[in-house]
Amino acid sequence: MELHYVVPSEAEGQRLGLFLRTCGVTAGLIKSVKHTGQGFFADGQALHTDQKVHAGQCITFALPPEPATSVIPQPIPLSIVYEDEFAAVLDKPAGLAVHPTLNYPDHTLANGWIYYLQSQGKNGVFRPVNRIDKNTSGLVLCAQNAFAAPLLAGQAKKCYLAIVQGSLPLGPGRVEAPIGRRGDSIIGRCVTPEGKYSLTEYTVLAASAEHSLVACIPRTGRTHQIRVHMAYIGHPLAGDTLYGGNIRRIGRHALHCAVLHFVHPVTRKPIRVSCPMPSDMEGLAQANYLLDGWSLDQF
Length: 299
Prior knowledge:
Elements: E1 2-6, H1 16-22, H2 27-36, E2 40-42, E3 45-47, E4 58-62, E5 80-83, E6 87-92, H3 109-119, E7 127-128, E8 137-143, H4 148-152, E9 157-165, E10 171-176, E11 179-181, E12 189-191, E13 199-207, E14 211-218, H5 225-232, E15 255-263, E16 270-274, H6 279-287
Parallel strand pairs: 8-15
Antiparallel strand pairs: 1-4, 2-3, 2-4, 5-6, 6-8, 7-8, 9-14, 9-15, 10-13, 11-12, 13-14, 15-16
């Protein structure tokens, strides 16, 4: 893939390296293009990073070859909600880990993505920008190459749908409480004064006597943040046995990343992607009359 940048008048006389950095190209990528790629060009002529650029020039360079990956390709079905040369958004089902770990060495979203790339004759690595728990469903943003990865990093703004136990009043709310490790569990978290600052904003979309449907926006990115905060206010997620929920109506914690916002790394235009609740959460919501009278368009 080749990238193109036209030098504006305000960049007249800048050194190429500085100009590229102002365009969002990382120092690491510049070094990689110099040493393992084909170098940089101005109007077709080779240009070193310490040389000056001039207004109107077209600076081009090809991305270096993708590194090898240790992830084994496996034919795992993927739901691709958005894809272009720089970014992709996948709708991950519950029960599928995002990437290999000691507990889940294969059959992950990463394995399926590498298989998908190779089936198209492409080389690549799996670069998730945001990660969600194995039993959380929904949207995962991925960078398609080394150029897009740092520009997308930390950018994903997410809205989750959660079905919590108990009836909450309709409308907005927030939980601002520090989250830290829980002493009785390796993976568990809890609200504790020794924890890190954590903020979850939420809107109760619908409620019945037994359950409420809540749109949650985590303003900080703590482990299990929504699950911990909802349990802290007395409304654990349905199915979330780690934090006081029960599995009578659903076999996993009822949490789904439904809306994702990011800024495109090249066009700089905002992009919004959404996906519906999976069937297990939809069934629980329907049984509690939680599907009417609301829309995610505001998120």
